[in-house]
Amino acid sequence: MSESKRLKQCPICKEFSEISEMYCSCGYEFGGNRCTNPNCKQACDDFDPGTYNVTWLEGNGNIQTNPYDSDTGINEIMGEKTATYDELQELNDKLYIRLFNNLILNEGDILEINDIKIKLTPSK
Questions:
Q1: CA atoms within 13 A on the CB side of 59
Q2: If residue 18 lies in a helix (H) or strand (E), which one and from where to where?
Q3: Cα atoms in the Cβ-side hemisphere of radius 13 Å centred on 55
Q4: With contact defined as beta carbons under 8 Å apart, do 43 and 106 qualify?
Q5: Of 29, 48, 111, 124, whose Cβ has the fewest other Cβ atoms within 10 Å?
Q6: Any idea what the Cα angle at residue 57 is, between residues 116 and 66, rounded to 5°?
Q7: Residue 47: left (phi > 0), alpha (psi -120 to 50), or beta?
Q8: What is the pLDDT along the chain (124 residues), one digit of tens a residue?
């Protein structure tokens, strides 16, 4: 007689894992109800859908919503302004941002973050 396995489904990638597994192959931590993949945060699992202000904390990199919507999403480079030459400073000021207001995250939206640390605060 074969032994049946108890399975649980990942809310992010929808794959099934054995009940004893702590992590899904996509990085989701079952017990902590969060994704441990630093490049993937999905609304409805790690933060509530809503409107947020994004504040840069450290690093230099890109932040983008997936799917991207030019009216409500984000696709920006955030980071330190590192140019030391006067002629590059103007370009650097336009390239790197440190604050993005009123980002709308809908249920199921994925926030892709590369090489930066940010803080999300609900917009008022």
A1: 12
A2: strand 16-18
A3: 6
A4: yes
A5: 124
A6: 45
A7: beta
A8: 445 557 777 777 777 777 667 777 777 666 555 555 555 555 444 667 889 999 998 888 899 988 888 888 899 999 876 666 666 767 666 778 889 999 998 877 888 888 888 888 888 7
Model confidence pTM above 0.70: no
Dist CA 99 CA 80 (whole Å): 12
What are the φ and ψ backbone dihedral angles of 100, each rounded to 5 degrees? Answer: -130, 120
CA distances 116 to 21, 38, 57, 65, 84, Å, are 29, 10, 7, 15, 21
Residues near 32 by beta carbon (within 8 Å), at least 6 away in sequence: none
Cα 6 to Cα 16, 20, 31: the distances in Å are: 10, 9, 16
